[in-house]
Hints:
Layout: H1 13-18, E1 25-28, E2 31-34, H2 40-57, E3 63-66, E4 70-72, E5 82-83, E6 87-90, E7 96-97, E8 100-102, E9 107-111, H3 117-131, E10 135-140, E11 145-152, E12 155-162, E13 166-168, E14 176-178, H4 179-182
Parallel strand pairs: 4-8, 9-10
Antiparallel strand pairs: 1-2, 3-6, 4-5, 6-9, 7-8, 10-11, 11-12, 13-14
Amino acid sequence: MQLPQKKDEYYTYEDYASWDTDIRYELIDGVPYAMVSPSRTHQRILRELSLQFGNFLKGKKCELFIAPFDVRLNFDTLDDTVVQPDLLIVCDKSKNDEKGVNGAPELVVEIVSPSSIRIDLILKYNKYMQAGVREYWVIRPEERTVQVFILKDGNYISKYYSDADKLKVHILEDCEIDLSEIFSD
């Protein structure tokens, strides 16, 4: 299905699920956003991050997913927001179905590109906070930094980390991510 070019069109998950297209979209407040193909650097960071999280989570109750994997943030109300974070961790398995996650994951990671920074740092930031995502990471490959947002009393508190740091994962006791390995070339 070709998406209409009308800017005032509103879509829900039902519409989103019916689109037969090679282009990947996210749906935020009923508005579709086309996703760009990830760069090689993006894929390297995602691969290393997946390895570190995956190794830590073996035999534990939380589960790791990587994009493309639908997250329906408001599935129980308007069902007009479907995102595909680069990486996510879900500890409440009742949220999972075969197509994705219904509700807020415990941790979400977005690896930003120049074309996605507005969506990731404004639109998704607000949607993740409203949905109750407890930990949200924004990775900036060009700067070799990670900004971590921790949900506290309904708002995010942030902290920056550089490529030389070891990042303690707030939602996972004893889990530490070595950022020098994430950003290694």
